[in-house]
Structures are given as C-alpha cells and as structure tokens.
C-alpha cells in the first residue's frame, strides 16, 4: 500500500524537500511528546467519545424505563391471575341480594351481594378488589398479597374502634359500623 505522502510525490503536488521537512517536524513532535508526557488532543476523537457516552446514557435510561414497564406489567398479570383463581361468588340466587356500598378512591360504589356474603365482608373475611371496571371479592389472605403489589386495587372495610368521650350526650346511641346506607 502506498502512503499518501508518496502519492503526492508521484502526482507532483509535493516535492521531496517539503516531504522530508514534514517527516522531520512530525518526528520532533513525537519526541517532545514522549519527553514531556503530553499528547496532542484529538478534538474530533473527544467529541465522538462524548457523543458515544451520551448515546449510551440515553440507551441506559430507555432500558430502565422499559424494564420498569415490563415489571409493572408482570405484577399486574400476577394480580389478575390471583383474582381469577380466588374470586368468590357475590350472590347465590339473585332474589335476596342486598346493596353493599363501599368507597373506592373518592367515589361511593355499590355492589349487590347475598346476606351471607355481606356478613363476610363486614367481618373482614372477604375483601373487595377493583380491577378496572370490575369488582371482585377475594379472601383476606389473597387481598393481603394483592395489597403488597398494588395497594390502590384493594378496598378495605374500615373497622373503627369508637372512642366515646365522657361527656358525650349521644354515648348511649351508638351507630353500628355495618349500618346499611
């Protein structure tokens, strides 16, 4: 392979003395660099490395976002599977169903359940899980597992311990927690 300098000499663009001076200057520069420990900075190479570093950082961020989305999707699939495998019937025959009101977020929702299921809900043995537009009833153990993954899906009936003040005039008139409204 013929060097660029030799090609310039053959083409007549550079004479031998200029080529010799260029070689001498190049070797002097290399000697100085070796002696002082400095190297000439190749700005184009540094710019390319900077661009490569930025691209690698963007790729890492995109991968992290994609991994987080995949993990969230896997968690949601686990929740759906647990609900489907453990959901309980809300009603037995449909005739004797009663309305059960509960709050989800800031809204009051209503489902119709049998009296036995209502008793299980009030006692805390069954828990309401809201998946999108569907409302399902699952055992408390399963609801605890779902709540570990996504607490916003589980609706807990709040068991309130009523604190009665000594001078409360309505202390004799307690309102039950399971009052139907």
The geometry reads as rod-shaped
Note poorly predicted spans.
Answer: none
Number of helices: 5
Mean pLDDT: 81
Strand content: 15-25%
Largest sheet: 3 strands, antiparallel
Question: How many beta-strand elements?
Answer: 5
Give the count of structural domains: 2
Rg for CA atoms: 38 Å
Strand ordering within the main sheet: 4-3-5
Structural class: alpha+beta
Strand/helix succession: HHHEEHEEHE
Ends apart, CA distance between termini: 94 Å
Q: Helical percent range? A: 40-55%
InterPro entries: DUF2058 (IPR018636)
Pfam families: DUF2058
Protein name: Nucleoprotein/polynucleotide-associated enzyme
In short:
It comes from Duganella phyllosphaerae. With 181 residues, the protein is α+β, with helices and mostly antiparallel strands.
Topology overview:
Blueprint: H1 4-11, H2 16-36, H3 43-86, E1 98-104, E2 107-113, H4 115-123, E3 126-131, E4 134-139, H5 140-149, E5 154-155
Antiparallel strand pairs: 1-2, 3-4, 3-5
Account of the 3D structure:
With about 180 residues, the protein is of the alpha+beta class. It has 2 domains: about 5-35; about 45-160, no CATH class. Helices cover about 50% and strands about 15% of the residues. It has helices at about 5-10, 15-35, 45-85, 115-125, 140-150; strands at about 100-105, 105-115, 125-130, 135-140, 155. A 3-stranded antiparallel β-sheet has the order 4-3-5. A two-stranded antiparallel sheet has the order 1-2. The longest helix has about 45 residues, at about 45-85. The radius of gyration is 38 Å and the shape is rod-shaped. The protein starts with a helix and ends in a 26-residue tail after the last strand.
